[in-house]
Amino acid sequence: MRGIDKGLGTCEICHQIVTFPPRGADDNTAICPRCGHCVHPRIPYSIQQSWAFIFASIIFYIPANMLPMMHVYSFQGVQSDTIISGVEFFIESGSYFIASVIFIASIIVPITKIAILIYLLISVQKKSTKRRQERRRMYIITEIIGKWSMVDVYVVSIMVALVQFGGLTTIKAGAGSLFFLLVVVMTMLAAIRFDARLIWDTKESDEQWCC
Known about the structure:
The chain is 53% helix and 11% strand. It is mainly alpha-helical. It has two domains: 41 residues, no CATH class; 155 residues, Butyryl-CoA Dehydrogenase, subunit A, domain 3, CATH 1.20.140. It contains six helices and seven strands; from the N terminus they run ββββαββααααβα.
């Protein structure tokens, strides 16, 4: 028996246990007696918001890979590198570890996170009862690996600061870094707005709790 079946929930702010009005009431929300926060049985419009952020991240991911991440200005001219060309540069220079880190953080991690979230959203909408524990672990993985998506942005920002300090060469962040940052933010918001408790809400009677 779940807490929600007994009309119980948890405040998102202070984690106080609250009691919801009976099912079918005009207002299914409750006010936390400790902090006064408005508590919902499930995140309102969780699926719709997650889908919106996922679609936005996919749109931003295209220019993030096509546009340069940074521009290097030196006496030899200007060199602009995208994510892929940057990985190729480190491979050619023998820095295989750096190339692999950037490739995993900038290519593998975002695609994996988007794919997992899409799978979770589809399975929840289909009210699937299969592999619930595996889907829960998959959601936890998206939260763990999400922060590693920022590695490429960190590399660009650090290189800009260090090279500017050196004074011999100038490095400026390209438009690709901005779009990649937006991809990271959108996937983080998609994961935050996805209510993992929906994985266990598979009965038709649970629909009134979801929005």
